């Protein structure tokens, strides 16, 4: 049997999911289950004068209506100093904030009853933008704070003014990462069942063990009395790592009603209450020399936190850490301020702070090139960190780039495209008024994955940055893997089975993987930050090695051979040089439960647990090229070609890797061209349905051309770096750089995302004197 690492194996998960046999939270219907519905605020900022539940309480099937006043002991949630109740008590902070809950016998009765609850509001000034929230004399959204800047930090020793002043050239830019909605296929859902033995919750989460810990602490229960199950989860993209009020409310109401309580978000609720992403403004100043070498970079990040500042408060630190991208920059001086606004809360969204950094530095590189009249590729080459300088310690403590070869990725990319021919075609099209304009955009990126180590990761509210796994060899030679990570589409069941198959040399289809249940998986941290393979996979690999090593000792004992002379291949142990002298792995597994046949002092069974604590973060990287056509009459941007070379270290499964890249590219391209959460001046969402919020369909996306180089990292035993966020990190700037490049001869130097036809058309009209 050849190595399973690197094999393009079809996913184990897909047959059930593709035939409608998956099990999602809403598929689970225990006897006696009732339904919860929210009464949500239609005001963005207001005092709650009163709530009248009477019109709803008498409706058929209604079991109760609760407000904040009815739940005084329910613990508040949120960032320290910014905690808020699960239901708005005296005040609402954004449209969609829950004010009350209704529980009824069925979902329709609950929805009707929620609509019948009467709430009286006293309107307050609305600050739907960071400009409004930080304006002089702006009303503080949170009582007790002097303003709406909830956190402000300088992350460097000084502001780099001396280095900027000494640079031969100096350039200022303001760059925006607009607010995006995650829009997972499955909205937030939870089912709480509080019985005498404790609380069981089926829930859409990326980190069931962390949620168990939070629920146990908030309700004062021992952890063993809280069971959290993440069944099949329809996408997460970071947004399902958050603690939502409904998790606490369904649990508390199940305790009171002594019945299982389910809540399933509607799509409109999802677009106003699930945490959203990005929403950063960067004020950048860069100093550079005549050759385009970057000498100094000053970056002020302004982060919109929305109406419930929590995870977003610290996201700009990740942006700051990655501000230099894959370039050697003499001095980087980042600072940030996080601002509360009367909008949906911001949280983690695919990449969480790192795509914003990559967009910024790649737009800076192109801007420097235009300023000097240089080719953007030449500026990149002159600034790239070289492979001989790896591992590369950045100026930020603990941020050390692992082994990478940024120039090799760019070279591999250029082998796929005929760059001189594209430039020639661009020139011809510019001279032909009837031809669409052509633009070529590049992105040489590095991002942060494999989240841990513990000292860094615990600041995000997790026990640690490690991951755990258990591998058990059954007596028939099959194996079971219990993984601490909990997937929501990544393909862990396939990849982890491949790792175990490789170590134990047993058939892939004889390995099953369980996950997502705190009652059956010993411990875990979760799936986010591209940590599935670098951290979770490393733990699985280590546990399989421990099983193999123990099995090897038993086999050597049975074969009366020295352990160093025994080898394992194709599920059989044999003595080196005497292939006829051997024993099958299944026989060894069976023998492991026969104490009289084991060496003295051996524990029974082949069942091993391993933890992997990352020595460092991992840093996936790559080089992407986007070629666009811009219609002169309409401003419509069409991607003609998208080529991606990614380096995620060891590729466990090329099919899974390609799928991750494709998904990330779809979200990155959509941010560049289509997606934006918008509010009016009163804080009313203008994108509250999928009619108004444009997610990409197949015709909106190009046929991707993808490939990999493999520069293994030394920071984990697999040499893998993670890949899930790379496409979303690399694509936005590749597309925007291409659009700007198409219009550069008209004097256009920047365009804010999304590059909608209207925006591009207006730029074309301005350039043509219209």
What can you tell me about this protein's structure?
With 770 residues, the protein is α+β, with helices and mostly antiparallel strands. The protein has 20 helices and 28 strands. The radius of gyration is 28 Å and the shape is globular. It starts with 13 loop residues before the first helix and ends with a helix. The model has no long low-confidence stretch (mean pLDDT 96).
* Helix/strand structural class: alpha+beta
How much strand? 15-25%
The share of residues in helices is: 25-40%
Unreliable stretches (pLDDT < 50, length at least 5) are: none
CA-based shape: globular
Number of helical elements: 20
Oligomer: single chain
Mind telling me the C-alpha Rg?
28 Å
**Strands ordered across the widest β-sheet:** 3-5-1-12-9-10-11
Number of DSSP strand runs: 28
Structure in a nutshell:
The chain has 770 residues and is an alpha+beta fold. The protein is 29% helix and 24% strand. The strands form 7 sheets. The protein has a 7-stranded mixed beta sheet with strand order 3-5-1-12-9-10-11, with helices on both faces.
């Amino acid at each position: 049997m050849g190595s399973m690492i690197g094999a393009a194996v079809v996913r184990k998960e897909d047959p059930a999911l593709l035939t409608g046999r998956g099990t999602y939270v809403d598929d689970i219907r225990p006897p006696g289950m009732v339904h919860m519905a929210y009464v949500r605020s239609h005001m963005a900022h207001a005092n709650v004068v009163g709530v009248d539940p009477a019109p709803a309480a008498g409706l058929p099937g209604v079991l109760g209506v609760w407000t904040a006043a009815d739940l005084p002991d329910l613990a508040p949630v949120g960032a320290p100093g910014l905690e808020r109740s699960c239901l708005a008590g005296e005040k609402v902070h954004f449209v969609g904030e829950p004010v009350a809950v209704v529980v009824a016998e069925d979902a329709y009765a609950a929805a009707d009853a929620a609509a019948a609850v009467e709430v009286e509001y006293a309107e307050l000034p609305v600050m739907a933008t960071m400009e409004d929230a930080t304006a002089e004399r702006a009303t503080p959204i949170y009582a007790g704070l002097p303003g709406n800047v909830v956190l402000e930090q300088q992350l460097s020793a000084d502001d780099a003014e001396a280095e900027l002043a000494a640079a031969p050239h100096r350039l200022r830019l303001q760059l925006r990462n607009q607010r995006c909605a995650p829009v997972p296929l499955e909205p937030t859902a939870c089912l709480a069942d509080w019985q005498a033995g404790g609380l069981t919750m089926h829930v859409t989460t990326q980190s069931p063990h962390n949620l168990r810990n939070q629920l146990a602490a908030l309700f004062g229960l021992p952890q063993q009395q809280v069971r959290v199950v993440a069944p099949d989860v329809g996408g997460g993209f970071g947004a399902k790592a958050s603690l939502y009020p409904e998790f606490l409310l369904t649990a508390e109401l199940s305790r009171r009603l002594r019945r299982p309580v389910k809540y399933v978000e509607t799509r409109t609720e999802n677009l106003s209450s699930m945490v959203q992403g990005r929403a950063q403004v960067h004020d950048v100043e860069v100093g550079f020399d005549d050759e385009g070498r970057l000498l100094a970079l000053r970056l002020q990040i302004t982060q919109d936190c929305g109406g419930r500042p929590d995870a977003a408060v610290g996201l700009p630190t990740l942006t700051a850490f990655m501000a230099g991208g894959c370039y050697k920059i003499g001095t980087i001086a980042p600072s940030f301020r996080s601002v509360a606004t009367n909008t949906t809360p911001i949280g983690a969204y695919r990449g969480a702070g790192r795509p914003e950094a990559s967009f910024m530095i790649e737009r800076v590189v192109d801007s420097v090139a235009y300023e000097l009249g240089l080719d953007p590729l030449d500026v990149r080459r002159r600034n790239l960190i070289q492979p001989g300088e790896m591992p590369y310690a950045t100026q930020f403590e603990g941020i050390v780039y692992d082994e990478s070869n940024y120039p090799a990725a760019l070279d591999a990319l250029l082998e796929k495209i005929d760059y001189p021919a594209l430039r020639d075609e661009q020139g011809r099209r510019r001279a032909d008024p009837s031809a669409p304009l052509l633009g070529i955009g590049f992105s040489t990126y590095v991002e942060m994955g494999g989240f841990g180590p513990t000292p860094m990761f615990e600041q995000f509210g997790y026990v640690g940055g490690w991951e755990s796994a258990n591998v058990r060899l059954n007596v028939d030679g099959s194996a079971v893997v219990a993984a601490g990570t909990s997937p929501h589409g990544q393909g862990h069941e396939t990849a982890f089975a491949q790792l175990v198959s490789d170590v134990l040399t047993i058939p892939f289809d004889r390995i099953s993987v369980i996950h997502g249940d705190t009652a059956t998986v010993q411990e875990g941290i979760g799936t986010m930050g591209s940590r599935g393979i670098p951290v979770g996979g490393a733990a699985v690999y280590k546990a399989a090695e421990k099983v193999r090593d123990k099995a090897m000792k038993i086999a050597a004992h049975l074969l009366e051979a020295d352990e160093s002379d025994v080898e394992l291949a194709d599920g059989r142990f044999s003595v080196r040089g005497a292939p006829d002298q051997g024993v099958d792995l299944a026989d060894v597994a069976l023998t492991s439960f026969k104490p009289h046949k084991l060496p003295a002092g051996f524990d029974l069974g082949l069942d091993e647990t391993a933890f992997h604590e990352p020595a460092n973060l991992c840093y996936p990287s790559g080089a992407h090229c986007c070629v666009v056509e811009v219609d002169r009459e309409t401003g419509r941007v069409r991607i003609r070609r998208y080529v991606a070379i990614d380096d995620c270290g060891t590729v466990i499964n090329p099919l899974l890797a390609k799928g991750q890249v494709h998904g990330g590219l779809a979200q990155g391209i959509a941010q560049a061209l289509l997606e934006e959460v918008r509010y009016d001046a009163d804080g009313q969402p203008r994108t509250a349905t999928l009619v108004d919020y444009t997610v990409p369909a197949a015709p909106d996306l190009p046929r991707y051309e993808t490939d990999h180089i493999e520069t293994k990292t030394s920071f984990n035993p697999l040499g893998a770096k993670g890949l899930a966020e790379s496409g979303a990190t690399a694509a936005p700037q590749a597309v925007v750089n291409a659009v700007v490049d198409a219009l550069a001869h008209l004097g256009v130097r920047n365009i804010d995302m999304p590059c909608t036809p209207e925006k591009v058309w207006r730029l074309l009209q301005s350039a043509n004197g219209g």
